[in-house]
Amino acid sequence: MVGKKETSGINFANWLSITRMLLAPIFMWAIFSGYYITGLVLIFLAISTDFIDGHIARAWKMQTRLGKMLDPIADKVIIFFAVLALMLKFNFPIWVGLIIISRDLILFFGSMVFLYRNRKKTLVPNLLGKITTFIQMTTIVIYPLDTGEIVKVTAISLTVIFTLLSGFVYFVKGYKLLSRKPSIKINLPNKITITRILAIPVFIAIMLTDLPYTHILAAIVFIMLALTDALDGYMARKRRQITSFGKFIDPLADKLLISAALIFLIGKGVEPWIAFVIIAREFAVTGLRTVAMARNIELPAKMSGKVKTVSQVIAITAVFVKLPISTNLMAIAVIITIYSGIEYFWNSRHLLKELA
Predict the structure, then answer these.
(1) CA distances from 16 to 12, 243, 257 (A)
(2) Span 157-172, mean pLDDT?
(3) pTM of the model
(4) CATH code for the structural domain at 186-356
(5) Nearest alpha-carbon partner for 29 in 207, 258, 204, 270
(6) Rounded distance, CA 88 to CA 186, Å?
(7) Which residue would you say has higher pLDDT here, 288 or 340?
(8) CA-to-CA distance for 108 and 122, rounded, in angstroms?
(9) Which of 88, 42, 40, 75 is nearest to 270 (CA)?
(10) Distance from C-alpha of 35 to C-alpha of 110, rounded to nearest angstrom
(11) Cα–Cα distance between 56 and 315 in angstroms, integer?
């Protein structure tokens, strides 16, 4: 499970992983715009790059620490978007989708903790994990097609079995790794951030229920989770517990929460292109942060990024409660989001030049 020390350069195999991650919001836009065939083609391309980048990395000796970080992140991002799209557009079983999303979020958090504690090492996925990813992606591809009930039930059953089994195996191995001394100290602000990440599946479940006043309930939960973003930052500054781990995981938690809300609200007050622009910016910056992390470089949060997050939270809340000015607020959020993304990449141009 633990690999050897690697370099942190970026190569062709890494770019394939980055491309796969960036295909996620495009796939989401295609599905919610009614271009189902285009969406399926994009998913097929994503699956293809998953196997191609690994083969190229091994065959051409391009295995790097960055690549072993990007590859599983790209898989989880595309699966996260695809499962949400299936649940909202194709009546994919909610409980199955929540199992997949919850397992991937927990594994992702565990891997980030390990990488933070072991800057010179990587996590190598085992065979069971690779099989699980293949089965999940296969199910995602065939579920919207007219393949028959037996095929769909079989695919879903295999997905649930392998997702739970691989999740248990990774949990046991991860617990053994993380319990070794010296153990990582998770302070209170980081615990608040972790709680926000683990609460995302609950938020998704609420949005997908048919309970009375679901939108109001979802808005309340969304605001509560968003407020924990301000709380953990305040606690970190007050207690002087600002860590590089917190700087990385905190904005990621925001991105997952914002993305889940936007995907649910497509067609319910949010246009597909708006969700695409915001989510694409979020994961482009996440990719940039991952590259920087692999090179032991920290990208500090910008004021424009904080303003961006606040504007997104306000706009999404307005859409949830159906305020008349929600469209205007969403337009403002898009403008600030684009500006913030441009600022991040401009200030990181020295890193981009090195990678080029």
Answers:
(1) 6, 31, 26
(2) 88
(3) 0.70
(4) 1.20.120.1760
(5) 270
(6) 35
(7) 340
(8) 13
(9) 88
(10) 35
(11) 43
